[in-house]
Amino acid sequence: MLKVSFDVTAMRALSLTAFTGVSVMLTACGAGTGTAQYTLDANGNLTTASATTKLANGTVQTASLTTSPLTPGAGGTSTGTATGTTTTTPGTSTTTGSTTTTGTTGTTGTTGTTGTTSITPGWGSTTSGSTTSGSTTSGSTSTTTGSTATVNPQPFGQTGTFTMTFSDEFAGTALDATKWNDKIWYEASNPTKNYAVSNGSLKIWPQRDATGKFFNRTIDTDGKYYHTYGFFEIEAKLPIGKGTWPAFWLFNHIGTRRPEIDVMEAYAATIWIDAGRLGGTKTMVTSDLSAAFHKYALKWEAGVQTFYFDGKPVFSKAVAMPDPMYLMLDLWYGSASGQPDNTTPTGIANSYEVNYVRAWKL
């Protein structure tokens, strides 16, 4: 959520148009973090405003607006219009939203109710936002907040319409316990904190616990979300260092069986029909996956599984796996990466960072 505060100390009350205009501009920017600038005329009316914000998925948006200022009077009813333009990068989408507001102006402040605008980010989702009503008083500080909600984003690089069955955009400040566990089913949760939700992403980092040893961290939906067949996608940046072994996979423990689909395993795609029964695997040669965010995805159909990297298919295997599975994100250690040691960077700055996790039914 993007917030902007403005101080009107030693200035007459902001007009209704100014209050509304900033609200429209911030709403047009969408949820994220960023900065906003604006100018007022001698009467306290907003004349121009602009903002730049980074969304949770890494998309950068810029927005600007101009307004038709109102001249405040001793009281009465006034109507004004504010128009905003939003440009999304990457993508080529530009959307203009306008709102007309009516409120009562007075010598000590203004109160008005704002309208609604919407934008369409270039990566394929539609975001709509509505602003809040508010009032200002000369000599006080007011805050205008724009809020947004993502409406059924589609799998990256896919055509057709998919219905979402699971999503976490990590927009809060803590892991959503209604969706996730912070341990795998056969272990207790390690009390040493090595994960956080902040600034629009989940972060899991290498850390030593109270015994001085590196420990595994698993974030999964076991007991909370399962699915059979569908499209599954994350956007993530990987950590560096000896021993780090991040992964995104689907899994289940059904009696003695252990069906498993490793969508991304730093970086290989692997299918385990059951424990010890390999269905197929492929290791990908890529650029430095810790330098930028990438999208890792799986299209799981009844008779075939197709793996995607940044929207492009990289591996496909004809295999039947009808069991429901749950989602897993983890930072473990070992495999081809070896064991962590004193050279392995610890702390949040070296995180397995996930912008979102999404799933759709086919």
Radius of gyration: 25 Å
The CATH architecture assignment of the largest domain turns out to be: Sandwich
The CATH topology of the largest domain, please? Jelly Rolls
Sheet with the most strands, sense and barrel status: 8 strands, antiparallel
Query: SS-based structural class?
Result: mainly beta
What's the multimeric state?
A: single chain
C-alpha geometry? globular
Averaged pLDDT, please?
A: 74
Report the β-strand fraction as a percent range: over 45%
Tally the helices: what do you get?
A: 1
Succession of helices and strands: EHEEEEEEEEEEEEEEEEEEEEEEEE
Structure summary, number of beta strands: 25
Structure notes:
By secondary structure, the chain is mainly beta. The protein is built from one helix and 25 strands. The two termini are 31 Å apart.
Summarize the structure in short.
With 362 residues, the protein is mainly β. 4% of the residues lie in helices and 48% in strands.
